[in-house]
Design goal:
Blueprint (H helix, E strand, L loop, with lengths): L1 H12 L4 H28 L6 H22 L2 H6 L1 H13 L7 E4 L2 E7 L2 E3 L1 H19 L7 H21 L3 H17 L4 H20 L2 H11 L10 H13 L24 H34 L3 H25 L17 H28 L1
Antiparallel strand pairs: 1-2, 2-3
């Protein structure tokens, strides 16, 4: 009887990591509610139905749930074996926006491929693919990382190639995020300090040069450093966003009751969706979202520290860093703390490519942490 109860207890634990699954489920639900509330005014201004953006996002949840389920359920050894293939596919997809007939260019940026209203942004898929590949290769060469030329340089070239292609797509913010992810992965793998010093000596001047040689990027930096210089143009987006955040106060105006989202906040359904959430739910609503993301990141990073599997440890930390960076950058942009970028807020911003990318990262985090929970049950 005792054995039966023990097996029943273990079987219940095998269903997954409740903290991770619950947090992601709540974020998905809150994100959909917020997207509808934030976007219905903009949708109607475009001559669309009020639920246009929310319904499109809901359709993207079908493939997103499929890739989440695969990333969550597949054996970790199998996933690791696909790291090289995933990286190759991700690099090839990055080239598709430049091909005539399927590539899509908007506002001078060649970031998408597809047709009509069905578009995909391959740089979003490159983010989890890069973390997976670096987790594999850096854990495989863990004992030889002192040999920078043979162990560190090859994955650095791969990461640099992907970053360069994204820059060619005129997507500076995503390229910077991808480069930051690569640096974090090399740091987690304990690559010698000389590597970071050498990388910084090259990367920092190139970053400054890429800003100074682009009028669009330079305007954003000037708008950030001097928000009162030209508030009607350079700082319009951020100023509108910060007004909405302040208007939310403690409790917010209530879901659906926000007014500043109606024509005042550009890109309120995507890059600045956090402003709409803040206006309607206030500090309390913001705190709820932060707590949910903190729960996910806590499980990812605590597993990474404890895990004896170096690949799973690197993978979980990297995926947590990817999600955490996106949340942090988007919130800081909305609050006017950093220059405006095009980084979406995971689970909240409109966009199918971002949703699928986040679903992959979430599934892999859940996969790793649930297996650690299984071992705790079996050995505890």
């Amino acid at each position: 009887m005792a054995s039966g109860l023990s097996m029943e207890k273990a079987y219940g634990k095998f269903s997954g990591d409740a903290l991770v699954l619950g947090a992601f489920a709540l974020l998905a639900g809150l994100g959909m509610v917020n997207l509808y509330s934030a976007s219905y005014g903009y949708a109607m201004a475009l001559g669309r139905a009020p639920g246009y953006f929310a319904f499109r996002q809901l359709l993207w949840y079908i493939p997103a749930f499929a890739v989440f389920s695969l990333a969550y359920a597949l054996p970790m050894d199998f996933i690791r074996k696909q790291a090289g293939t995933a990286m190759l596919v991700a690099l090839l997809l990055l080239v598709l926006p430049f091909l005539p007939g399927i590539g899509i260019t908007r506002n001078g940026a060649s970031r998408w491929f597809g047709f009509a209203q069905l578009m995909f942004q391959p740089s979003e898929l490159f983010k989890p693919a890069l973390v997976l590949y670096l987790a594999h290769i850096l854990s495989k060469k863990a004992e030889r990382l002192g040999d920078v030329a043979n162990s560190v340089l090859p994955p650095l070239v791969v990461a640099g190639l992907g970053t360069f292609i994204i820059l060619l797509q005129n997507d500076f913010s995503t390229a910077l995020l991808v480069a930051s992810l690569a640096i974090i992965m090399f740091w987690v793998a304990r690559v010698p300090l000389v590597f970071f010093l050498a990388s910084a000596s090259v990367a920092l001047p190139l970053t400054v040069l890429s800003v100074l040689t682009s009028p669009y990027r330079l305007k954003r930096v000037v708008g950030f450093l001097a928000p009162s210089f030209d508030p009607a143009a350079l700082s319009y987006q951020v100023n509108a966003s910060t007004r909405a955040i302040r208007a939310g106060s403690l409790w917010g105006k209530g879901i659906g009751q926000g007014t500043l989202k109606l024509g005042s906040i550009p890109e309120v359904h995507s890059d600045f969706v956090f402003a709409a959430w803040s206006e309607e739910t206030g500090f309390v609503g913001v705190l709820v979202v932060f707590v949910l993301w903190a729960a996910v990141l806590y499980r990812a990073w605590s597993f990474s520290v404890k895990s004896e599997d170096l690949f799973a440890s690197h993978l979980c930390f990297g995926m947590g860093a990817y999600l955490g960076l996106q949340v942090l950058v988007n919130v800081l942009v909305s609050a006017g703390a950093v220059p405006a970028t095009g980084i979406p807020l995971p689970m909240f911003s409109s966009g199918g490519s971002s949703l699928i990318s986040v679903a992959i990262a979430a599934g892999l985090i859940g996969n790793a942490t649930r297996r650690s929970r299984q071992k705790e049950v079996l050995h505890g």
